[in-house]
Fold:
Amino acid sequence: MREAVLRLSGVTFSYDRHPVLEGIDLEVAAGEFLGLIGPNGSGKSTLVQLSLGRLSPDAGSVYLFGEPVEKFRKWHRIGYVSQKSNSFNLGFPATVYEVVASGLTGKLGLFRRIGKKERALIRDTLERLGLSDIAGANIGRLSGGQQQRTFIARALVSRPELLILDEPTVGVDAESVNQFYRLLDRLHREEDLTILLITHDIDEITAAVDRIALLNRRIRFCGTPQEFAARRGEVLWVEDGRDVSHASRVPGEEIRV
Amino acid sequence: MSLTVPGKGAVRQSANGMWEMILNYDFMRRAVLAGLIVGLISPLVGIFLVVRRLSLIADALAHVTLSGVAAGLLLQKHVPLFQQVSPLHVGMVFSIGGAMFVEQLRRLYRTYQELAIPVVLSGGIGLGVVLISAADGFNVDVAGYLFGSILAVGEDELWWMIAAAGLVLAVIYLFYKELFALSFDEESAVISGIPHRWINLLFSFAVALVIAASIRVVGILLVSALMTLPVASALQISGSFRRTILYSLLFSESAVLCGLAAAYYLDWSSGGTIVLVSVLILVSILAAKRIRRLLILKSRQSDV
Structure:
């Protein structure tokens, strides 16, 4: 087994005594593509915030690249695409190039400016994501799919080893969603990028991911897509006795564990 | 009741014209220089406020500065030690304090970030009014601080403004990429390891400096105009951040120069005229865009 890029062990977290996560043990190995699914309010986003050190667990620990998250400082090793990226200020006067370049800010550090090497990195990232032709376009004028690729490019430009995506397909049309998963699949295969994807789209991700983890306060299932498919009825069997394994893809409604 | 607005009547029109006045009189030269300095630093700071949807913060801090100026005048009157201290500098200290308070409020009310503005604005005005009434009248014309008095800018003041502008330019130049990243997407910027607290604090400091420097030129009531109007105009015609900065600088410097010239020839208040020219630029751009759209529409129709 390769080194664990992200490891949560025995993580428990509650908001105002309301338990959100209980005894979470989860590992993302180097080079792995892990899909984390779960209904609304299952603690997915909280888990991301804990993984990024934005929240501290009540119990248990989080490790990034083998280091406790409290001490971790090499944030440029992680690319992050937030849920909010889809609802940014549409009137912001920035081009695709400027947005992607801003992804290098943390890695460069204070007082260092974008030089020749960085410009080559930006051009290369734009090329890889098929954004070269619209590099000079205003970000607000792009389609949802193009905006999303711009945000991925911003996260990837610093050449991170781990890419964390928090529900990146919310509010994006179906065609773009499919393209988006093909893109993630390609990045994962060709560039050996470790990916943690938090999503609602169970069916779309099974083809691309190595493992699926189902979260609802606890990790209810963790295994390969094949195992998930085989045990799907059982896994999605509800605790309160309702089977919703065949439920629709309405965000947040598809699974109740 | 008649309110004397500084600037009006301060300069008699002469047949020599404005340029000769500038060549011959120090106070005119200082006025133009002060105007150009403020025209340079206001939109540079303003653009980050506008894109972060915090344009009104400048207004709030300007009112806090007013209370600081009042405190400075009061101290001047009663404490001998403060007789050498310009009330504007006390105002600036208040403004920095206000900026730090705004940051604190923004963190406490993450989902209601704009709430910081009325809190600080009304607090500033409240304190200012109380201090002014406590002083029982000042020798200095408070109206000069409210509406600006660019022709009264002294030698010392000009040097101080140049120093303040230097600091503001340094902050924007050195932390441009951090400020851009934080303005575009604060969450991702913070996660990427940018020292956001420091940068935000430094930026608040720059805003306070710009306000203190602008008060002489346009006055407390109009300080935010030079920070936001040129940016609002630039946003209409630019798709990139760098261009937006460039255009807003162009618009604000033209507004300063045209405003000063118009104020001189028409004998109007200079601060007010500069702001009116800024509004005129914005309205002209909006109108031009509309006319262009109509023309395009018309040519399409005639093609059919």
